[in-house]
Amino acid sequence: MSIDVARIEAAVAEMLSAVGEDPARAGLTATPRRVAEAYSEFFAGNELNALDHLSDSIEFTAKADQTGELVLVRDIEFRSMCEHHLLPFLGVAHVAYVPDERIIGLGNIARVVETISARAQLQERLTEEITEAINDGLSPRGVLVVIDAVHGCVSTRGPRQTASSTVTLASRGVLSDPLERAEVMALIGSRGGDG
Ligand SMILES: Nc1nc2c(ncn2[C@@H]2O[C@H](COP(=O)(O)OP(=O)(O)OP(=O)(O)O)[C@@H](O)[C@H]2O)c(=O)[nH]1
Ligand SMILES: [Zn+2]
């Protein structure tokens, strides 16, 4: 089902009334439309299939004596919507995989993250779904996804922990091995230049 902008606008006007605001006052008249546009962005991934970003994979043949090649795309910025409170959580995703017979243009890894983020999510499920998409789309020898995020529902309300971030990790195949995983974690932690 596509996003129903008119229904979002009506619901936002109703919420404004419910919190004691006047949705007709000058500063608020365009707010339902703006929120509907923002929600259309936040939930655009409901209409998309992340695997479509992996359909143009490239054949990759490792030489016989090469093992353990790794692709790591670090610091992919994302925002998603916490499904408990409909407040954003923001952070970075690090996506690593060990190719088998297919690799993919690097920008498509970020597109997978964006599509799966643009849905009502839990950070754990977001991490799992990105891992699963890379695993299904590229059939690699291993996948590891690490997400580090700050939740609006933890920082702006409830516990109000503004300095706390949450790290989640999911893996498949050879990157589930603790030693292989440790190498990727070290690479994620390292930064070239002044980063
Ligand atoms: N595991 C997990 N929990 C989350 C995520 N986003 C938000 N939460 C937590 O989900 C919980 C929802 O708990 P509830 O008790 O139903 O709601 P609440 O009373 O608003 O909880 P508090 O935020 O702790 O005040 C809260 O502890 C949130 O911090 C997430 O992505 N993953
Ligand atoms: Zn929440």
SSE arrangement:
Layout: H1 5-18, H2 31-42, E1 58-59, E2 71-82, E3 88-98, E4 102-103, H3 106-117, E5 120-121, H4 123-138, E6 142-151, H5 152-155, E7 166-173, H6 178-189
Parallel strand pairs: 2-5
Antiparallel strand pairs: 1-4, 2-3, 3-6, 6-7
Helix pairs in contact: 1-2, 3-4
The site of zinc ion (ZN) has 6 residues, from loops.
- What hetero molecules are bound to the protein chains? guanosine-5'-triphosphate, zinc ion
- Summarize the helix and strand pattern as letters: HHEEEEHEHEHEH
The helix count comes to 6
* Overall structural domain count: 2
CATH architecture name of the largest domain: 2-Layer Sandwich
Largest sheet: 5 strands, mixed
Radius of gyration: 20 Å
CATH first level of the largest domain: Alpha Beta
Q: What is the percent of helical residues? A: 25-40%
Domain GTP cyclohydrolase I: 8-188
EC number: 3.5.4.16
Enzyme class: hydrolase
Subunit structure: Homopolymer.
Q: Please, could you describe this protein's structure?
A:
The protein is of the alpha+beta class. It has two domains: 5-42, GTP Cyclohydrolase I, Chain A, domain 1, CATH 1.10.286; 57-189, GTP Cyclohydrolase I, domain 2 (2-Layer Sandwich). Helix content is 36%, strand content 24%. The chain is built from six helices and seven strands; from the N terminus they run H-H-E-E-E-E-H-E-H-E-H-E-H. The strands form two sheets. A five-stranded mixed β-sheet has the order 5-2-3-6-7. Strands 1-4 form a two-stranded antiparallel sheet. Strand 2 (71-82) and strand 3 (88-98) form a beta hairpin. Helix 1 crosses helix 2 (31-42) and helix 3 (106-117) packs across helix 4. It is elongated and about 70 Å long. It starts with a helix and ends in a 6-residue tail after the last helix. The mean pLDDT is 94. Zinc ion is lined by residues 82, 84-85, 87, 151, 153.
